[in-house]
Amino acid sequence: MESQILEHKNNFLSALKGVSDNAALEALRVEYLGKKGYVSAMMQSLRGLSGEEKKAAGQLINTLKNELDTAIRAFSENLERAKLDKLVASAREYDVSLPGSGSYGSLHPVTLVQREVEEIFVSMGFSVEEYPELTDDFNCFEALNIPAHHPARDMQDTYYLSNGQLLKTHTSAAQNAIMRKYGAPLRAIFPGRCFRNESIDACHENTFFQMEGIMIDEDISISNLIYFMKTMLSEVFQRDIKVRLRPGFFPFVEPGFELDISCLICNGEGCPSCKDSGWLELCPCGMIHPRVLEMGGIDTARYTGFAFGLGLTRLAMMRYGIKDIRDFNSGNLKVLSQFKS
Ligand code: FA5
What we know:
Elements: H1 2-17, H2 22-33, H3 38-44, H4 51-92, H5 109-123, E1 127-128, E2 134-135, H6 137-140, E3 166-167, H7 175-182, E4 186-195, E5 207-217, H8 222-237, E6 243-247, E7 253-262, E8 279-281, E9 285-288, H9 290-295, E10 304-311, H10 312-320, H11 326-330, H12 333-336
The structure holds adenosine-5'-[phenylalaninyl-phosphate] (FA5).
């Protein structure tokens, strides 16, 4: 029996050397330790032996069984470790900081048009400033000469937070901070997302982008304002478009204007994108009210300035012929993936 056990052990160990995966290891285990395996067969062959012989041979077989079992478990662990080492080594071959080689998404049309407008104003000496989306009553209204009873301050139009802060309803909310930061003379644009609690349609969203611009210097007049607005529009559209300037009231400018462009979706005929008027309100503007300049720490005896609030999302509609403003926030890839940068 002893020699038979030794023979099985040696055969097992040499077969184990040739094992390279879990399936082969399992086959070897079944061959030796399975119900119909060698170990089980040896156990059955003990039946004819006497009590003492049976006990001694049984112990030897059990020892063999334990040795094979231990060897199989150790081999299985080694196989797992080798698999893991291989994975780690192959992961190390990749430089995760390298840029991807495929095409992954595209820039949003509002981002594209924002970059275009930024480039135009930067080339005319403007700096691009940032301002948070969360602000407060002072910056969004008070510093802009918007009186306490003005409807814009109403809960119907403005999203207030329980801590008294609010989501900025217009990029004008940044005017005071930027005037105080830089003083005069000043040329700055500040794009940003705005939020208004209003019903949405083809040209109104509750979340949309504006780009504010201010220019403050000695002798700034309405003609400077008109020059910059015209330059911006002709650069963006690269063609003549119909524009109209009409009086508009905003407490933070005096005089104030509404700058509309002829709807490019319907060529001024009237459609849902322009609420059938043929015109789209795009860029209200005006001469900054002296009280707003004062609150911004600007010397009004020396400086005047203009400000504008460009509807960036609407500009993107006109620039790319997108009929419905709701497409911008829809996440509809059919629409958005057309805009490869
Ligand atoms: C304002 O927000 C003023 N702060 C603009 C301003 C700045 C005037 C500086 C004078 C001087 P208004 O609410 O009209 O104004 O919005 C400005 C532009 O933002 C609109 O002409 C329009 O193009 C865009 N806009 C306004 N509301 C929405 C909306 N719900 N959805 C999409 N675009 C909008």
